[in-house]
UniProtKB/TrEMBL annotation:
It is a multi-pass membrane protein. Belongs to the autoinducer-2 exporter (AI-2E) (TC 2.A.86) family. Coiled coil: none annotated. It is found in: Cell membrane. This is Predicted PurR-regulated permease PerM. It comes from Pseudomonas japonica.
């Protein structure tokens, strides 16, 4: 016969757990990324704690402040830059509608075999520009609403990202106690292999954060430096675009090649050559050399897992899913492979 009192307690505990998860649901993505970031940077936390004489709260405060300076301030700057670029784009469309396109650049007509034809296309587009804008004008409002919605999603994702940096403080400060609690929970659920799975998750998180997200951040920073040196407008925005494109294979050239072409179109051939060389050997060099090395440490991670993690995370969690998605899929894949290998080994005589 069932113990009615014990059953009632279990039901109440499940209801309490469900209510707690319901309350935490809006912060799940921020909590996940905060935990991943704290776990991946834990060696740095140990170093800072030693430098602070073992004061964990002080070390956590210093590291959290550092993350806020490195991430929050550039994102705020990015917000102001995006607003400026939206105004510039609006002014450009208005000028084109009133005055038409500017005269074609002199070098366009000097291109062998194609120059005259390209200039003719340019003049045709200029003549038809007003009619084209009149045709698409009814759809501009819909495009504007779509862009506004996407901007709101990016803005909420940035807020979540900053909130996750606040959660990092608590993961830093209470890290050892949380790790001990997770280990006890795993040992209660799966027995003696709890420590093994905890170490496996740790290694996978380190590989993904360092290999995928870390190298993407490095490429974004190097691209920003190159854009600033070359004098490309909107360098910060292009640096962020390079960072996001770096999460997919062969993505960074989609940012620096158009910037190089724009410099050539403006007639700044020296900077165009510089940016082309910088993009080929510096920005893409990180993607071709450093990323495969970091990801391959400790095991092979299929490329499709990273791709599905990037796009699936973006759809599931929004902007912050760019970081959470690859990590979660990589951890799930590693656990599944380890479990299947262990199960096969255990069945062998």
């Amino acid at each position: 016969m069932l113990n009615n009192d014990r059953l009632l307690v279990q039901i109440l505990l499940l209801a309490l757990l469900g209510a707690a998860l319901w309350v935490m649901a809006p912060f799940i993505s921020a909590l996940l990324w905060g935990a991943i970031l704290a776990y991946a940077s834990w060696p740095l936390m140990r170093l800072v704690t030693r430098l602070c004489g073992g004061r964990e709260t002080l070390a956590a405060s210093l590291l959290t402040t550092l993350w806020l300076i490195l991430v929050a301030l550039p994102l705020i700057w990015l917000g102001f830059n995006l607003a400026d670029h939206v105004r510039d784009a609006t002014a450009f469309i208005r000028d084109v509608q009133v005055d038409g396109l500017p005269d074609p650049p002199a070098w366009l007509g000097s291109i062998p075999f194609l120059g005259e034809r390209l200039v003719g296309y340019w003049n045709t587009i200029d003549q038809q520009g007003a009619a084209l804008l009149t045709t698409v004008k009814p759809y501009l409002g819909q495009v504007g609403n779509w862009l506004l919605a996407r901007s709101a999603q990016i803005g909420s994702g940035i807020v979540e990202l900053i909130l996750s940096l606040v959660f990092v403080f608590f993961f830093y400060r209470d890290g050892p106690r949380l790790a001990a609690f997770v280990l006890r929970l795993l040992e209660r659920l799966i027995g003696e292999r709890g420590q093994h799975y905890l170490d496996l998750v740790a290694g996978t998180v380190q590989r993904v954060v360092n290999g995928v997200i870390g190298t993407a951040a490095a490429q974004g920073l190097l691209a920003l430096i190159g854009f600033l040196i070359a004098g490309v407008p909107g360098a910060l925005v292009l640096g962020l675009v390079t960072f996001m494109l770096s999460l997919i294979p062969m993505g960074p050239p989609l940012a620096w090649i158009p910037a190089t072409a724009w410099l050539a179109w403006k007639g700044d051939y020296g900077m165009a050559i510089f940016l082309g060389i910088w993009g080929t050997f510096i920005i893409s060099g990180v993607d071709n050399v450093l990323k495969p090395y970091l990801i391959s440490r400790g095991g092979d991670l299929p490329l499709v897992i990273v791709l599905l993690g990037v796009f699936g995370g973006l759809l599931a969690f929004g902007f912050i899913g760019l970081f959470i998605g690859p990590t979660l899929l990589a951890v799930g894949y590693s656990l599944l492979v380890d479990w299947s290998n262990h199960d096969t080994t255990a069945k062998q005589p």
